[in-house]
């Protein structure tokens, strides 16, 4: 029961944090920026739907590379993906339009969103249930392809940014790559380490 509650917190936090960073328009996580730029090519593609599309494509790539199919893990990963993406879209609709806000206010929203997102990821990694498809792709690169955590991580980021750049150019301009993206990449590991040390270990 406790693990289920933590999973709900992880889903809600992932959705809220991503939505806050998206609405601030000054940068998201690597995969968030990829989804934002995919969604920019058509009004029919919401950021959450774009996240699902991108995640499923790289999830399939990870399964092909890993050469191992565990149906129940795939099912739960997809359930998490659909839940998170739907909730992300819901929060985007609920949050106010920040286009007229000052940069400092949008930066504050972005940082709070990042902290919420990283906390949710920390909880999700702690319970290790219904793993996000992008984390599956990351793990496959780290363990099966490069056998190196650092190289695998940066290649995964590179794939995300490549998607963001390609679709950003197709839509007429790259969006949601900025200071929020830099902060997430540079500080993400350290912040999650603090969460693990001072919060997650006491759950």
Topology:
Layout: H1 2-24, H2 30-39, H3 47-66, H4 71-94, H5 103-127, H6 133-145, H7 149-171, H8 179-198
Helix pairs in contact: 1-4, 1-5, 2-3, 2-7, 3-4, 3-6, 5-8, 6-7
Instruction: Give the number of helices.
Output: 8
Q: What is the chain-wise order of helices and strands?
A: HHHHHHHH
Mean pLDDT: 93
Uncertain segments: none
Binned strand content: under 5%
Main sheet overview:
none
What's the helical proportion of residues? over 70%
The total number of structural domains is 1
**End-to-end gap:** 13 Å
CA-based shape = globular
- Gyration radius (Cα, Å) is 16 Å
Number of strands: 0
* Structural class category: mainly alpha
Describe the structure.
- The structure is a single chain.
- With 203 residues, the protein is mainly alpha-helical.
- The chain has one domain (2-202).
- It contains 8 helices and no strands.
- Helix 2 crosses helix 3.
- It starts with a helix and ends in a 5-residue tail after the last helix.
- The chain crosses the membrane at residues 44-65, 74-95, 107-127, 148-171, 177-195.
- Keywords: Membrane, Transmembrane, Transmembrane helix.
- Pfam families: DUF6198.
- InterPro entries: YczE/YyaS-like.
């Amino acid at each position: 029961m406790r693990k289920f509650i933590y999973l709900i917190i992880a889903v809600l936090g992932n959705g809220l944090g991503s939505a806050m960073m998206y609405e601030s328009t000054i940068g998201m996580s690597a995969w968030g920026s990829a989804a934002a730029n995919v969604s920019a090519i058509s009004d029919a593609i919401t950021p959450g739907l774009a996240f699902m599309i991108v995640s499923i494509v790289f999830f399939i790539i990870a399964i092909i590379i890993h050469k191992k199919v565990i149906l129940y893990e795939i099912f739960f990963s997809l359930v998490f993906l659909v839940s998170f993406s739907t909730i992300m879209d819901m929060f985007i609709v609920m949050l106010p339009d920040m286009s007229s806000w000052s940069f400092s206010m949008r930066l504050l929203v972005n940082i709070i969103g990042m902290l919420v997102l990283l906390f949710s990821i920390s909880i999700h990694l702690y319970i290790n249930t219904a793993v996000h498809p992008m984390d599956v792709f990351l793990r496959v690169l780290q363990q099966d392809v490069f056998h190196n955590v650092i190289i695998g991580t940066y290649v995964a980021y590179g794939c995300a940014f490549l998607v963001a750049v390609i679709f950003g150019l197709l839509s007429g301009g790259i969006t949601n790559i900025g200071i929020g993206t830099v902060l997430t990449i540079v500080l993400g590991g350290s912040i999650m380490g603090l969460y693990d040390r001072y919060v997650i270990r006491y759950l």
